[in-house]
Amino acid sequence: MSPTCRSLDARGLPCPQPVILARKALAEGGFDTLEITVDDAASRENLLKFGAYAKCQVEAVDEGGLTRIRLSPQGFTPASALTEACPLPEGSSGGGPVEVVLLSADGIGQGDPELARLLMRGFVYTLTEAERVPRRLLLMNSGVKLAVEGSESLANLQKLEARGVEVLACGTCLEFFGLTSRLAVGGSTNMYEIAGHLMEGPTLSLG
Amino acid sequence: MKLTAYTRFSGCGAKLGPGVLEQALCGLAQPAYPELLADFSGSEDAGLFRLGPHQALVQTVDFFPPIVDDPYLFGRIAAANALSDLYAMGARPITALALVCHPLKALGMEPLKAMLEGGLAALTEAGCALLGGHSIEDPEPKLGYAVTGLVDPDRAWRNNTLEPGGKLLLTKPIGTGLVNMALRAECASPAAQAAAETAMATLNKAAAQVLAGFRVQACTDVTGFGLAGHAAEMALGDRCGLSLCMAQVPLLPEVQDYAAMGLIPEGTYRNREGRLKFLRGDLSPANLDLLFDPQTSGGLLAALPAAEADAALAALHAAGVPAWIIGETGGAPGFVQVV
Q1: How many Cβ atoms are within 10 Å of B104's Cβ, its own excluded?
Q2: How large a percentage of chain B has pLDDT more than 90?
Q3: Which residues are bridge partners to A31 per DSSP?
Q4: How many CB atoms are closer than 10 A to CB B331?
Q5: How far apart are CA A114 and CA A125, in angstroms?
């Protein structure tokens, strides 16, 4: 199958319209590459930033005062890149209360790692206080570090478990960080199960 | 009704870039009036014209398209922003004239009335009499005020009179341009929106009153050119430059996320183009996106002797004014060092 491309013409649109259009298109998906044509330097730079933020492969082709920005989502564009700091307006989150929370890092968001760490600690704590908790909490990549001995979120994860939340850490990730023997809450799982849980129902992804 | 839907740029982000303005003003000269103390040839916050041995008129004008959707709040912000230039010179506001552009057919009378009410509320809080104004029909709404104040010219705070060994105080967090972009993208968090609105609608009156009790070396207000752009103007004196400590610069909530997502106002890029040459040090894109973010109704940026800075900070906090020490004076004149 040959790669598919979707084109958007964002010429003449003021900031942040080109970024809004790109974000909406990425969330809709259904293509390998999104090509957005812009005609001013600010939109060009903003789209390059947005592409990096949304974890896309980014390419810019400048010619004759126009720039074509090509954004290719790399397999799994983290939902957080599109929705966390900035929820999409309608219909893109599946609807219904969140069943599964996926934490794919030990911090929330990019930028300052200290802030990211504080935000994650705060999020896990806030979940313990929330009226409604998800059915499952999946930990992937550095997110597994939240569930090992010495983690500042360990006690809160244990509280969540006591409230009936199934805490599952990615086994491959634990092994990769050499933390398999230090998992202190919930159980370890594999990609087959993780993929299954993620497809079960409304999922919130943070990291 | 969304006021901001009628505008291409918002707030002080609609300002012409500093580079453009310099070119336009280049070669423009007027007679040397003996009473004229500061005009457009400098980079003062407002013009100064001597009335007597200890009194001068301070005049300035500022108007812009809506930066928020609530017309009353927009009115307040427009007035607070115009008055800010007077406070930045240590002046006492006395009179104001309104400048109004309004798409009457599209928006009707109600929002216009609410805008003017919001503006008048802020002027009243400043003790500044509204004398009149001028309005025109325009597809894009805009509001602002020409304001006049009084100051003892020998005691007026200039912006390029830095002395070495001082500390820099800022009285509002930065990031209003980024929050505005996020609002337009319908993704500003309620916390970010509320913090930005509160900051923009707050007069710099209390901040100026507290600072008047200290030996202010130099002062300006942070608006359309961004923190770095206005800091660069301060650094243009002949004694020394200044340095900004990024870790100390207060930010509105989530603005770094918005910048990373590419929700950066065009004004940021214009400011960067015009003023980047005055900056040295850690000029990472992340820093520049914040430092050149055009502010609407931003805080006062004041330089005080180091020995008085902590006391001034405490006095500001005691008066309910948020304030932070964000850098110090020193280094080569003409340059802003970013650390």
Answers
A1: 12
A2: 85
A3: none
A4: 18
A5: 17
What is the C-alpha to C-alpha distance for residues A114 and B250, in angstroms, rounded to an integer? Answer: 16
The B residues from 280 to 319 touching A (CB cutoff 8 Å) are 285-286
Q: How many Å lie between the alpha carbon of A129 and the closest alpha carbon of chain B?
A: 20
Domain positions in chain A = 5-77, 81-206
Residues of B that are catalytic: 12
pLDDT tens digits for range A78-115: 544 555 545 554 333 334 567 789 999 999 888 788 88
The fold adopted by the segment(s) A5-77 is Translation Initiation Factor IF3 (3.30.110)
Helix, strand, or coil (residue A38): strand
Query: Chain A closest CA to B57's CA: distance in Å?
Result: 39
Contacts of B259 in chain A (CB under 8 A): 49
Which chain B residues contact residue A109 at CB under 8 A? Answer: 257
Answer yes or no: is the ipTM higher than 0.90: no
Q: Which of A15, A85, A86 sits opposite B264 (nearest CB)?
A: A15
Count of CB atoms within 10 A of residue A51's CB?
25
A-chain residue closest to B267, CA distance: A42
B145-158 average pLDDT score? 96
C-beta neighbour count of A42 within 10 angstroms: 20
Is it the case that residue B13 has pLDDT exceeding 70? no
Give me the CATH topology for the region A81-206.
Answer: Hypothetical Protein Ychn; Chain: A, (3.40.1260)
Which domains are seen in chain B, by residue range? Answer: 3-151 (3.30.1330.10), 166-338 (3.90.650.10)
Tokens 């207060």 appear where? B250
CA-wise closest residue to B240 among B328, B339, B140, B127: B328
Is-contact B164 B329, C-beta < 8 A?
Answer: yes
pLDDT tens, residue by residue, A22-66: 988 888 888 889 999 999 999 999 999 999 988 899 999 999 889
Are the CB atoms for B159 and B185 separated by under 8 Å?
A: no
- What CA–CA distance (Å, rounded) separates A183 from A169? 8
SS (H, E, C) B153-197: CCCCCCCCCCCCCEEEEECCCECHHHHHHHHHCCCCCHHHHHHHH
Q: Does B5 touch chain A (CB under 8 A)?
A: no
- Whether A5-77 and A81-206 share one fold: the answer is no
pLDDT of residue B295: 96
The single-letter DSSP state of residue B295 is P
